[in-house]
Write a structure and sequence with these properties.
By secondary structure, the chain is an alpha+beta fold. The protein folds into three domains: about 45-200, Galactose-binding domain-like (Jelly Rolls), CATH 2.60.120; about 230-415, no CATH class; about 420-565, Arc Repressor Mutant, subunit A (Orthogonal Bundle). The protein has helices spanning about 5-10, 10-35, 35-40, 85-90, 190-230, 235-255, 265-290, 295-315, 320-345, 355-380, 395-445, 455-470, 480-485, 490-500, 505-525, 530-535, 540-550, 555-565; strands at about 50, 55-60, 75-80, 80-85, 95-105, 115-125, 125-130, 135-140, 150-155, 165-175, 180-190. Strands 3-2-5-10-7-8 form a six-stranded antiparallel sheet, with no helix packed on it. Strands 1, 4, 6, 9 and 11 form a five-stranded antiparallel sheet that branches. A hairpin with a 2-residue loop joins strand 7 and strand 8. The longest helix is centred in the last third of the chain and has 53 residues, at about 395-445. It is elongated, with a radius of gyration of 38 Å. About 35% of the residues are buried.
């Protein structure tokens, strides 16, 4: 009987089936989420007016630039989507505000009424004017700056300010600090298509981040509970740590609230969080895959301490970009090391490698992908992988895969524990039954022995012999060894044993072995030859000869008759 009544009703086969189904469904959903980003690019509203291409840019910051009648003919041209941080650095400015302007004609295919404008993702804050009227903005400008660089800029254009089939002026004021960019699809469309596109874009890029945070907080409580119950399991601790360190990373992508004093603090905390995550995650992999890599872990801890020391004492605003680029390169390098941990675990067939590696490798690839995105932001140079240019952050989607993988490991461990409990209970039951049978056998033997005259000393020796046989009948037992153990001649032992028990010494041993063999024939599918040798017979021939003597049938017939009765 299992100690927990709930576990008694727990169908292991059902759980295994459910785990397999959840693995498949989770993989499909995760891949669908990963591929939703390019899918969104292919489902743009139609009709629309694309705004990608040549814009005018000025690194001055004057309110007059918002006016539609302002003449920007002497401004420099700049291609959007694009990164203008290098242009800002040319005037020795790592932070500030600039203006972007473009004139556009809305043709007759645009339905008259309210329209919607999508301006991609703008780093860091923005104010958008259409024909001189402010239609929206996100983030805050200095001195109380707040960046919302990953949020899609989707604004409504009221009909009253639109000049249909005439020239319209779009003016965007943008703040920059370390990051200065406009990325993503840019267009104006009718309200219906714009609404569907903007809602889907906000869900995949912002709402998914909060879903990830909610899942992470729930798993943090679960694994923290496991760690407090089993402090010797280091993987639980490091899983909790990587959840804590990953929170600021994901929050950076979707945060709506100005929680930092300034952008320097924001970048510093983000950098610390990424580095701490790059320390906790590989150590977590070491623990879960049983990889003994002490020196690697020491280097990782030193790396974290060094980054914190430099970040606190030697990083100012002018060095944010340089230090950011160095951290990004090191983070990507650790990502490739994490990838190698999964490969090594698969090659060595480490526990849980097959269950977790798919999810682990995917989240590592997502993190490396976002490392390339961050590198493009801080360096100002676009990264291209073959023909693909990574611009959209997907780490929050990869984190959900990490949660799925670790949840599967948790379920797998639960199944293993229930199996161990079942096996332990079964072994305990068998042990009790076997000892009860042996005790009963001994009692019957002693009670049914012939009434013979025997000395107390001889009786004590025979009891010791019987007890030894009952405990060791599966092993190789010889009459000579038994006789030597009690200090009598083998022939004398045989005669006294027969007188005392009514059985020949060899028959007594054979009967115990046959009883054990019969039990295994009833309960197991093990080959009869293996059972014969396991219970102590020196040959199958002897086993087949002795078995019918006690069971009145052959081993094959015994098994067949028992299975027939069971059916």
């Amino acid at each position: 009987m299992m100690p927990n009544k709930w576990l008694e009703t727990f169908d292991r086969e059902t759980v295994v089936y459910a785990v397999k189904i959840s693995f498949v469904v989770g993989s499909i959903l995760a891949l669908a989420l990963l591929f939703s980003f390019p899918y969104l690019k292919m489902t743009l509203p139609d009709p629309r007016v694309d705004l990608e291409g040549q814009w005018k840019i000025s690194l001055d910051d004057q309110g007059i630039f918002k006016n539609a009648e302002f003449n920007d003919a002497d401004w420099e041209s700049f291609t959007l989507p694009g990164n203008f941080i290098l242009k800002a650095l040319n005037i020795n400015s790592v932070e500030g505000a600039c203006w972007l302007r473009k004139k556009v004609v809305l043709g007759p295919d645009m339905v008259k009424g309210n329209l919607g404008i999508c301006l991609g993702r703008i780093g860091n804050a923005d104010e958008v004017y259409f024909n001189g009227v402010r239609i929206g903005g996100m983030g805050q400008f200095p001195p109380h700056e707040f960046s919302m660089w990953n949020h899609p800029r989707n604004y409504l254009i009221p009909e009253g300010i639109i000049h249909f089939e005439q020239e319209n002026t779009i003016a965007i004021r943008v703040s920059y600090f370390g990051i200065g960019e406009v990325l993503g699809r840019m267009f104006i469309s009718n309200l219906d298509g714009w609404s569907r596109y903007s809602v889907a874009l906000t869900f995949t890029q912002i709402t998914m981040g909060y879903i990830t945070i909610a899942m992470g907080c729930a798993l943090l409580m679960i694994f923290l509970f496991f760690y407090l119950k089993r402090t010797e399991n280091g993987e639980y601790l490091f899983y909790c740590l990587q959840l804590c360190f990953g929170l600021p990373v994901v929050l950076e992508l979707c945060n709506y609230w100005p929680i930092f004093v300034d952008n320097k603090m924001r970048f510093t905390i983000l950098g610390f969080a990424w580095v701490a995550l790059n320390v906790a995650h590989p150590i977590f992999l070491h623990r879960i895959y049983n990889l003994e890599r002490v020196w690697v872990e020491r280097i990782l801890w030193f790396y974290l301490a060094l980054v914190i020391f430099i970040g606190v004492f030697f990083t100012d605003k002018s060095q944010v970009r340089l230090h950011g680029i160095i951290l990004i390169i090191s983070a990507v390098s650790v990502g490739f090391y994490n990838f190698s941990c999964h490969v090594s675990a698969l090659v060595k067939k480490s526990p849980y490698a097959k269950t977790f590696s798919f999810f682990g490798v995917t989240v590592v690839l997502c993190a490396i992908h976002d490392g390339f995105v961050y590198f493009s932001k801080f360096s100002g140079y676009p990264m291209r992988i073959f023909s693909y240019e990574p611009t959209i952050m997907i780490f929050h989607v990869g984190a959900i895969l990490l949660y799925t993988g670790t949840a599967l490991i948790l379920v797998t461990r639960f199944i293993d524990v229930t199996d161990e409990v079942e096996n332990l209970n079964e072994s305990l039951e068998n042990f009790i039954i076997e000892n009860s049978m042996l005790s009963e056998k001994l009692e019957k033997t002693l009670n049914k022995r012939p009434a013979v005259s025997i000395s107390n000393l001889a009786e004590e020796k025979l009891k010791n012999v019987i007890k030894y046989i009952n405990d060791n009948y599966l092993d190789d037992i010889s009459r000579e060894d038994l006789a030597n153990s009690v200090g009598v001649h083998p022939d004398s032992l045989g005669k006294q044993f027969k007188k005392y028990t009514g059985h020949k010494l060899g028959d007594y041993i054979y009967e115990l072995r046959v009883n054990e063999a019969a039990r295994r024939l009833r309960e197991e599918d093990t080959n009869i030859i293996d059972i014969a040798f396991d219970v102590g017979f020196e040959s199958v021939r002897t086993f087949n000869r002795i078995f019918p003597k006690f069971m009145q049938t052959t081993p094959n017939n015994y098994r067949r008759l028992y299975r027939k009765d069971s059916d």
